[in-house]
Amino acid sequence: MPTAFAAALLLTWQALVVIFGYPKVILPAPSDIFVALRDNSAMIWQQTVPTVRDTLAGFALAALFGVGLASLLSFSRLLRDAIYPLIVVIQLVPKIAWTPLFIVWVGIGWPSRLTIAAFIGFFPIFIAMMAGLESTDRSLVRLCRGLIATPWRTFWLVRLPASTPYLFAGLKIAITLAVIGVIVAEFISSSEGLGFLILQSAALLRTDIILAAITVLCLVGLVCYGAVHAGELAVRKWHGE
Amino acid sequence: MSIPAAALRVVRPVVASPGGVAAAGADYVVVDRVRKVYNEGSRQQVEAVAPSSFAIKAGEFVALLGPSGCGKSTLLMMIAGLDAPSQGTIGVAGHALTQPRAETGIMFQDPTLLPWKSALDNVLFPFLAAKRAVGPADGPTRARAATLLDQVGLGGFHHHKPRQLSGGMRQRVAICRALVYEPDLLLMDEPFSALDAITRDEMNLVLMKMWEEHHRTALFVTHSIREAVYLADRVLVMSRRPGRIIEDIRIPFARPRGLEIGETVEFNEICGHLRGKIQHTPQ
User: Fold this and answer.
1) Which of A48-62, A83-97, A121-135 shows the lowest mean pLDDT across its residues?
2) Is residue B18's pLDDT more than 60?
3) What's the confidence (pLDDT) of residue B281?
4) How many CB atoms lie under 10 A from the CB of residue B139?
């Protein structure tokens, strides 16, 4: 059903452009976008690789730090009370606003883009993981105490696996945010990536290439999100749902 | 059962009682003037358990009976070492209790199974959670866990996850988990209270059978009078909050007991007596 609706939308778009003869610079028809995609495929592919690479690396870093810090805080009430509220407050600031600062700190190369993706992706992962760890069934934790399990074993065997469904909710948000982070960073300062291509094409009034790049970005986003979603389904199945 | 229950019965070495005399039927659990107060010193101070003393002999099945909220579960949690008494001492197997023991088996009100582990792996969880003499991969241990599941009637469900099992089946898995490491003391906190009446009768039969096969010193907390009389060698009655022991009677029925003893006059007289005790508790 959504596929049929999307197809209908594309057809209407094509028809409107053809009937009213909008100039290609303002609104290219879907067929123009397809042609742009085909004629520039090597160049677009070349710009897709760094974007995907930075997104995935940033996402991986975000997951590492998000899960790591949440796990650390789950062991210490004191640390948790000191750090958690602070992170929630930082979280409220639009993260994109930090981007220029990171470029100043880390430089204009891929490390800064990766850092921004990791920074933006960190918060939803951290917060979801905290929620997962805090909502672990108390009776399971008590069972572990009764079975004289150490806090570390209780964490590893019960709290961590019990929080995986929460974690995946955070990962799903984080992967989309990581893409946004990389694109914004590429807008601000970069000489490669789809964000750079979009900005450059805008300067050249190549609307068709902009939309071709956005199409590729859509696909990238879909594939990344789909992969995380598949991971979530696997975890839910493991939990016997 | 093709093998007589007596042959399967594990004879536990009786640990020296606090007096130093080792004897069958010695006091195994000694609760001495134990009191529990929550929020001590604050305006909301609540005395959950008034100073209570009793002892459980080795091999004895004792039911702790009382109305909801009388502190009986608190008392059990203290004997499990999961909660500390405000006053008084608890001794188990001749040692003062300061923390949970590796040799105590506990069943909670909920089955508390790990949802991502199969029934068999849940039964083996005690070997994974803490270092014991053998690990969960040990062949004879796995075989024992499988046998236990068969004994409670879960023969075809070893690899099912908890969500695929009914409430009664999950609690059967929990029984096996509490027995698999051959605890010397079995503590049960209203394990069947969330089940419907028919399943509950069934579970009582399963528990009876398992207890007769794996003879253990046992304490069973319940608010069901009939359940207490049916299961136990001895019933302790607790008053309303703050809970204290107001009655201690021996249940005379021979074992193995079938559910039909519930129809006898004597059974119902005992139940009537206990009901009277619970209802006429002075506040």
Assistant:
1) A83-97
2) no
3) 57
4) 8
Interface contacts A/B by beta carbons within 8 Å:
59
Return the sign of the alpha-carbon dihedral for residues A11, A16, A22, A26: negative
Strand partners, B236: B64, B248
Token pair recorded at residue A93? 């600031």
pLDDT band of B117, cuts 50, 70, 90: very high
Distance from CA of B34 to the nearest CA of A (A): 20
**Location of each CATH 3.40.50.300 domain in chain B:** 27-103+184-283
Asked if residue A230 has pLDDT above 90, the reply is: yes
Question: Does pTM surpass 0.95?
Answer: no
* Whether B164 and A238 lie within 8 Å, measured CB to CB: no
Contact residues, chain A to chain B, C-beta under 8 Å: 137, 139-140, 142-150, 153-154, 157-158, 161-162, 238-241
Inter-chain contact A240–B115, Cβ cutoff 8 Å?
A: yes
Q: Class of A50-238 per CATH?
A: mainly alpha
ipTM of the complex: 0.81
pLDDT at B122: 95
Kindly tell me if the per-residue pLDDT of B19 is higher than 60: no
For residues B113 and A212, give the distance between their C-alpha atoms in angstroms, rounded to a whole number: 52
| Number of Cα atoms under 13 Å in the Cβ half of residue B216 | 26
d(C-alpha B100, C-alpha B83), whole Å: 9
Report CA torsion sign: B136, B139, B141, B142: positive
* CA triple A152-A154-A157, angle to 5 deg: 105
Structure tokens at A150: 């150490």
Phi, psi (rounded to 5 degrees) for B240: -65, 165
In whole angstroms, give the CA distance from residue A239 to residue B84: 34
Q: Find where tokens 């002892």 sit.
A: B55
> Domain B27-103+184-283, CATH 3.40.50.300 — does that match?
yes
Cα B69 → chain centroid? 18
Q: Tell me the average pLDDT across B48-77.
A: 90
- Residues ≥6 apart with Cβ < 8 Å to A213: A44, A47, A194, A197, A198, A201
Express as a percent the part of chain A with pLDDT over 90.
60
- Whether B162 and A148 lie within 8 Å, measured CB to CB: no
- SS3 annotation, chain A: CHHHHHHHHHHHHHHHHHHHCCCCCCCCCHHHHHHHHHHCHHHHHHHHHHHHHHHHHHHHHHHHHHHHHHHHHHHCHHHHHHHHHHHHHHHHCCHHHHHHHHHHHHCCCHHHHHHHHHHHHHHHHHHHHHHHHHCCCHHHHHHHHHCCCCHHHHHHHHHHHHCHHHHHHHHHHHHHHHHHHHHHHHHHCCCCCHHHHHHHHHHCCCHHHHHHHHHHHHHHHHHHHHHHHHHHHHHHHHCCC
Cis ω before B256 (30° cut-off from 0): yes
Q: How far does Cα B6 stand from its chain's mean position?
A: 21
